[in-house]
Each structure stands twice: as structure tokens, then as C-alpha cells.
Amino acid sequence: MRSMTAAMSRSGSVLAVAVLAGAAAALAAHTADQARSRERAVATVIDDWHAAAAAADEERYFGHMSEGAVFLGTDPTERWTKAQFRAYAHPYFVKGKAWSFRPVSRTVSVAPDGSVAWFDEELATPNLGPARGSGVLLRDGATWTIVQYDLSVPIPNAVFPQVKGIIASERTVAPPD
Prior knowledge:
- The chain is 47% helix and 29% strand.
- By secondary structure, the protein is an alpha+beta fold.
- The model has no long low-confidence stretch (mean pLDDT 88).
């Protein structure tokens, strides 16, 4: 009788462990699904933002940016607030010819609490050639908005000394080392 009670107790413990392990696995799968869903939602916003520029849809393009957003362009002087960037870009949108950035690859990460996302992407562009973008988005309810975007042109290490020399010759005041 005692061995039967012990066996039942052990099988109950094994069953409890199995149930807990199954619940943990289900929770992990649900959490992973949520993360992938958030990453897809962020990628959708970025894709539509790029599509709005290509279609010269100014309202849609700037609608994806938060009021406090910052856009960093490729030129050292290009650090724009949303309002400044919109003023700069408006003539291009009005002409129906903004810019075209086609993502070649992208990595999106989302904070565990789902409130912040950051990304980097490799871009194909007609004007810049290969370029890189990175940025940060914040989630407000179900809406993701871009709060920072940084556009850059990657420079291969092999040619960087020449590029550095060109940049240095363009500056009127040498920056500190």
C-alpha cells in the first residue's frame, strides 16, 4: 500500500511538472508570436513610410513621424526636426518626385514591454546608391510612430582614407580629434 501511495505521489509530481513545463512552453511560444507580430507591425510602418515617399504622398509620409521626430540626413548639416524636414522636403513632394528607398534587408528589435522598437536596414536608392537607414519607433496604443531616422551611406574601409581626405578638404574648421 505504501509503495502504491508513493508511486501515485511520484506520478502526481511528474504530472504537475509536465503541466508546468507545457504551460511554460505555451507562454514562451505566445511571447515569441507577440514579438514577431510587433516586428511585422514595425516593418509595415517603415515600408509604408518609404512607399509614401516614393509616391510623393507628403501627408502619409509625415503622418508616420511623431511630432518630436528627428531625421538625420547624409550631410553633416542635416539634423532636422519633423517641421524642419517637412519644410525641406515639401518642394519635392509638391513636384511629385520625392525619393525612393527600397529595403534590401532589415533587422527589427522590439523592447520586451513592446513600447519601443529599433531597426537598421540596407537600402537600394537611385540617387545615393547603396545606403543604410536606422531608426527608433514608439508605440502609442496600436500605433507605431517614427521618432528618429538616420540615413547614411556606408563607406568601405578600403576607400575611407580618400573619403576622409575629401571631407576634411570641404571643412572650413577642422574638428577636434
